[in-house]
Design a protein that fits this description.
About 35% of the residues lie in helices and about 15% in strands. The chain has about 525 residues and is of the alpha/beta class. Keywords: Calcium, GTP-binding, Hydrolase, Membrane, Metal-binding, Mitochondrion, Mitochondrion outer membrane, Nucleotide-binding, Repeat, Transmembrane, Transmembrane helix.
Length: about 525
């Protein structure tokens, strides 16, 4: 890929806010003034007001505001607030003071950790014209610090001189670039590999761009990605060059069909090694990803508007899509998805949504832990009830191409169903509660085919189980029944009677004359 980045992240809408911090006398204000003005005044104020740099100073043409700070104790709270609200931090030290680097390790970097500052940090050695040239300069001086403080995203170390106007604009160029295109979320500098969430997002983009589904990006498909992301086509020689660079590193990653997934991921790792994170970020953002490497809100389902007496469930369109996905990823054709097949299915999502409560172990599995089609659809039904937005988000990650709103349906109010003695709903939530050791958990476990255990294990958190049952009264419907076990009524510190009453009113305790739900006490 080629082309400059399009700074379309959250920072670019209002500009980049760069906070300059460091000990008194390290040259913070002089650095800012020398960057913003043609000449450095004789008398430099101790702390400058916010300084706006012109957009034409930077390749991305994104406004930059520089915040000068004081290191005095009386201004400590203000300094903390500024650091917490920064898009990037420039941490200064004086090159002419032998103790300067020690202050970084004993105070400033621990302070950033204490404040939980997660933005990129540029370490700037000021007054380089006054330094002893026998000293080791540049990154070699700071490398041990970068290794010691891995919690801090130290992006770059640079030495500069305000009085000699040496590399002063580069300091803020690096800071702006690090804010717009941070390396840490995407690339592990120690392992020299893409981070898992980045690889998952790029795999999804690869699949989207692989129109003929042959497992490789052809020259035309590569060019289509380039035009979408950078508004300019690749020249034939550039495509040849891209594939040659990848092939030199991993020969098997380019075949007769084009660039394979492994080659596509390797190409992005090369971008980072060559100092071009903006290329990967631009591709991610053009496909809707935010700085957390998740799809941004405008690519997802808007908030679901419903009353307490309405539920949400998957549409038939979404269910048919999921049936197709199940068949596609059931690679051994045994009618169940094992752990590896499920991991593969969710390999284009930021992470598998079913690894943690309430979804883990919520559905029935076979004797070797495989999830049947009924269990698979039941898990999705559970997610649609508990978190409709997350449900649709994960549908999109695994390939749902329809309008997000077409995946879910808000059902009519239950009072209408009760009046008409009829319902179109096929997912019912049933709450199970009772005193300690009444057997609530055993009841839920039996609902998904788990054997009874003679050993009592107290429940400390809510549990969900979900399964599909055939209702003989209305045989044309297959119903998802979701059992929700509330913590014991005796444990009043965890859940009150009023909480239970309110929860039950919003759930489906009983569907008269249509579906009989038996409570277990």
């Amino acid at each position: 890929m080629a082309g400059g980045g399009s700074a379309s992240n959250s920072s670019s809408t209002t500009g980049v806010r760069i906070v300059v911090a460091g000990d008194h006398g390290t040259g913070k204000s002089s650095l800012i003034l020398a960057t913003a003005a043609d000449s450095l005044p004789t008398n430099v104020p101790s702390v400058l007001p916010p300084t706006r740099l012109p957009v034409d100073m930077f390749p991305d043409r994104v406004p930059v505001t520089i915040i000068d700070t004081s290191s005095s104790l009386e201004n400590k709270d203000k300094l903390d607030d500024e650091l917490k609200s920064a898009d990037a931090v420039v941490l200064t030290y004086a090159c002419d003071k032998t103790s300067a680097l020690a202050r970084l390790t004993t105070f400033w970097l621990p302070e950033l950790i204490r404040l939980k500052v997660k933005v990129p940090v540029i370490v700037a050695g000021c007054k380089s014209d006054l330094a002893d040239f026998k000293q080791v300069i540049g990154l070699e001086r700071v490398m041990p610090i970068m290794k010691q403080f891995r919690e801090i995203d130290i992006d770059t170390c640079i030495e500069c001189s305000a009085s000699k106007r040496l590399r002063i604009s580069e300091v803020f160029n690096y800071a702006q670039k690090a804010a717009l295109y941070p390396i840490a979320p995407l690339f592990d500098l120690d392992a020299r590999t893409l981070k898992p969430r980045c690889m998952r997002a790029l795999k999804r983009i690869f699949i989207i761009c692989d129109h003929d589904k042959d497992g490789a990006l052809s020259d035309a498909e590569l060019n289509g990605l380039q035009v979408k992301c950078f508004n300019a086509p690749l020249q034939p020689s550039e495509i040849v060059g891209i594939k040659r660079v990848v092939q030199e590193k991993l020969p098997a990653c380019v075949n007769e069909n084009g660039l394979t997934l492994a080659g596509f991921l390797s190409l992005h790792a090369i971008f980072f090694e060559n100092g071009s994170p903006e290329t990967t970020w631009t591709i991610l953002r053009k496909h809707g990803y935010n700085n957390d490497i998740r799809l941004s809100e405008n690519h997802l389902l808007p908030p679901v508007i419903r009353t307490n007496h309405q539920s949400v469930q998957l549409t038939s369109e979404a269910v048919e899509f999921l049936r197709g996905v199940f068949t596609l990823f059931d690679s051994d054709g045994d009618g169940a998805l094992n752990a590896d097949e499920l991991d593969d299915l969710f390999s284009t999502a930021p992470e598998s949504p079913w690894r943690e409560a309430p979804y883990v172990n919520a559905a029935e599995k076979n004797e070797i832990g495989g999830l049947s089609l009924d269990g698979f659809l039941s898990e999705w039904a559970l997610m649609s009830v508990l978190d409709p937005v997350l449900c649709v988000e994960n549908l999109i990650y695994i390939g749902y191409a329809g309008d997000p709103s077409s995946a879910l349906r808000v059902m009519r109010k239950r009072c209408v169903d009760h009046t008409e003695q009829n319902t179109e709903q096929n997912v019912f939530q049933c709450f199970v509660f009772g005193p300690k050791e009444a057997g609530k958990s055993s009841f839920l476990h039996s609902f998904v085919g788990r054997p009874f255990s003679e050993v009592y294990m107290p429940t400390t958190k809510e549990q969900y189980t979900v399964n599909i049952v055939d209702q003989p009264v209305v045989s044309m419907f297959i119903y998802n029944i979701m059992l929700h076990s509330l913590i014991s009524l005796m444990n009043m510190c965890l859940i009150s009677y009023r909480d239970i009453s309110r929860t039950c009113q919003s759930g489906h305790l009983l569907m008269n004359r249509l579906l009989r739900v038996v409570f277990y006490f």
